[in-house]
Amino acid sequence: MESTATMFDEDPVLLCLVIALLLAALLAKTYSSRSDTKSDAPSAHSPDTRQLSAGKRNLGQWTPIDFKAPDPPPYPDWDVKTTKPLPYRPFKYGPTYFVTMGLRKGNLDDWIELDNEYLKFHTIKKERIASRGDRLCKTAPEALDAAIELLEMLCDYLPKRYPSMFQKTSVGISNIFTNEEFNIVQRPLAEEPMITIGRLIQDDIAIMVEGSDGQSYLKSGSIILPGFWKLEDKFNMSLSEIHTSGDVPQFREKLEKGMVNFFKRVMPDDMVIRHNVDDGLAWSHSIGPEDSPHVGWFTAQKDKVIENHWFRSERQTLRRLPRSGGVAFTIRTYFHPVTEVAKEPYVPGRLASAIRSWGDDVARYKGSEKYKSILLEFLDQENQKQVDSGLITEGGDGHLKYPY
């Protein structure tokens, strides 16, 4: 029998083939070893997401994760007097209106948006906290750790994102413009943590906590500027019950399954954003007194003059709290007179088209019968003015990126 060396001497192609096979085996072993090491030791900014999947953990249980988002850069050129609210106009041309969750991936750097309406919001919130704070801000005992975690995250984030407004202190945070200081390490805390959170930011905010049935429940909130709903009415409700009690159109058919599953899956290193359109800052008195037991669009006055119509939109974010596992849900309200919004290029035509695209169920939910005729007449006139002046061309806003 020929020796192995003789075989390779006589057939160099065979030698190359054997060497290639040995190298492939070595690389596969090395890659497998590295992959195993990586999965066992997640990086500081990439949480081990295996236990987050609803299929790989017991529902209603959470193992704290050692995750901290990278420090956000300071908001470019931010100034409490000059930085205007971002002009979100979250509506699209018809003829079809689709009922969807409308989620978009967000950047953790952009978690909280502040602008030159901060002091107005702060004043309104301060007054409402003083008059009815325990009805606007509350936390269930099982969500207290989540509320404190959220407060700690904001006290870390805000001085880095808005250094001209906030300063980090040895015990918490101070607001340079309002001369407020907050101690978040003393126990007990000086006030309900969600009240402190309400004083710090323009957003309302809620915390959903997963139960053993896999549903997320509203267990903590700072809902000071709700418009149409009250925290005390929805507290302890499941995500599904919150929406069905509010008669959200097509929730059961198109939204419920995806929404419930999303709340199970959302990760600490992810953030999603959604926008919607509504009406009224603080409490919307267009539908009646805040303490009335029976209010809704059915109690609103019909066909008010256009100067009494206001455009309210919301920017909402969702992110998982890594220590407690709660899901923080921010609600930032933008509120402008319709007469001002309609001066923006393409907006009156697009808004009118969006309103006309609503199905009967969506139109009822949004109370359109109370304002549709007056509002559409005004928007059509303003759109025609923009066309006649050459400010816009019909269907010419394709260069704009949603939510505009």
Work out the strand percent.
5-15%
| Strand arrangement in the largest pleated sheet | 1-8-9-10-6-7-2
Principal-axis shape equals: globular
Oligomer: single chain
Q: Biggest β-sheet: count, sense, barrel? A: 7 strands, antiparallel
Distance between the termini: 80 Å
- Overall structural domain count: 1
Low-confidence stretches: 1-9, 11-45, 279-284
Features:
three-stranded antiparallel beta sheet, 10 strands, alpha+beta, 404 residues, 12 helices
Q: What layout of secondary structure does this protein have?
A:
Layout: H1 4-10, H2 12-40, E1 104-105, H3 118-136, E2 137-139, H4 144-161, E3 166-168, E4 172-175, E5 180-183, H5 193-200, E6 204-210, E7 216-222, H6 231-234, H7 239-245, H8 251-265, E8 272-278, E9 310-320, E10 327-337, H9 338-341, H10 347-357, H11 360-365, H12 372-388
Antiparallel strand pairs: 1-8, 2-7, 3-4, 4-5, 6-7, 6-10, 8-9, 9-10
Helix pairs in contact: 1-2, 3-5, 4-5, 7-8, 10-12
Please characterize this protein's 3D structure.
The chain is α+β, with helices and mostly antiparallel strands and 404 residues long. The chain has one domain. The protein is built from 12 helices and 10 strands. A 7-stranded antiparallel β-sheet has the order 1-8-9-10-6-7-2. Strands 3-4-5 form a 3-stranded antiparallel β-sheet, with helices on one face. Strand 9 and strand 10 form a beta hairpin. Helix 1 packs across helix 2 and helix 4 packs parallel to helix 5. The longest helix has 29 residues. The chain starts with a helix and ends in a 16-residue tail after the last helix. InterPro entries: HODM_asu-like.
